[in-house]
């Protein structure tokens, strides 16, 4: 059908009338694709609007329903997340990423984590409530990308915030996918759009823009020393979850066969990517041979050739002590191939006996290479473990039945997580008690973060009433 001139004029006038009074500047701005924006500033602005709406119009029951739906929907796609995690980063193991993702989906605490405090007395009643910060800026690592986005999102939403993620560029696709799935779940539960957002072009520059933005009221940085230092120097509330180099100490009272099994399970979990994973073993001399013998029964390759050990060290660590990212999170088989060792079957880890100051011991490798250092006795073991942990105060593991030794090491190492007679991942609630997180805040002291870590304490005082003691 053809429109005559009169019809066209009428239509144009009608549209102009409808647009009058509307703010048309927003038409140029970008709409997200399930929480993913090209522009970081735009992502923050949208997360700001979402948080205002969320806090004003949604109650605690709504938050519970939204989190329940996020858990359900993510669990349906957990295999995809594990697969994409390995594909996108080129690091880790599918079957372990599956376990890590399931752990945070199921067990990250929600609204129930927000306990109020109360004071009552002659002067009445005072309540301390846990309120949202507003928009949180969260920086996520390449080593546990979807896991960090999931546990941070659940905790931050439970506390009434919205969150802007700045992921690692090397984990861009898996991080965007996780944000998209969370947004779809929130929408399905009737929640606001853009409560969890990110950018399609993550970079250090975008992380800087995010941290400095006036609408970001809290920064949560999960990563190495660089990002934690940057987050803590922004002049606003920041949580820093930094690097570790967890030692595992074994004394002569330990169940050696179990210790060997547990240490290999922990150090090879997701190819040693978790910051809590055993990074070096310190064993008293009297049980060292038996420990190594027992480790050999747990699908490891015992590298003894001095020449190959040197070659491996120069390949994975440069002269300045920096790790070669090409080998981070790779299968032991792939690492062995680089030093011309072919393995027919899958190997969980490479064990190597070294001196105490070997680069494998003092560097956070994040690869399934486990250095083993012999020491004279428990005194030397504890002293060395404290030294190689390097003041990170992150994680330590001990295998012993001597309560005095256990207590002494726990006291002296001062780590956020101390695991006794189990693989390191028991400290994350995997085979151990307690809730999980992949943001373990040692430097700023929140410890294993959860919803309450992402909330502000606010006091409400009612004077002269409601004390019925
Ligand atoms: P990384 O430090 O290279 O990157 C982490 C994040 O910080 C990334 O998003 C990256 O883009 C960003 N980033 C890095 N430097 C930055 C800077 N100067 N300014 C702004 N942003 C910056 O770490 P990674 O290799 O992805 O992860 C491994 C490291 O993270 C290890 O040291 C590990 O121990 C640590 N980690 C700690 C925890 C914890 O809970 N404490 C959890 C996971 C990983």
Automatic annotation (TrEMBL):
The record's InterPro entries line, in alphabetical order, gives: Acetald_propionald_DH-rel, Ald_DH/histidinol_DH, Ald_DH_C, Ald_DH_N, Aldehyde_DH_dom
Pfam families linked:
Aldedh
- In its keyword annotation, does this UniProt entry include Oxidoreductase? yes
Q: GO MF terms on file?
A: acetaldehyde dehydrogenase (acetylating) activity
* Alphabetical UniProt keywords: NAD, Oxidoreductase
| Domain annotation Aldehyde dehydrogenase: ranges | 39-423
Q: Which SUPFAM superfamilies match?
A: ALDH-like (SSF53720)
PANTHER family, per this entry? Answer: ALDEHYDE DEHYDROGENASE-RELATED (PTHR11699)
Q: What is this protein identified as?
A: Aldehyde dehydrogenase EutE
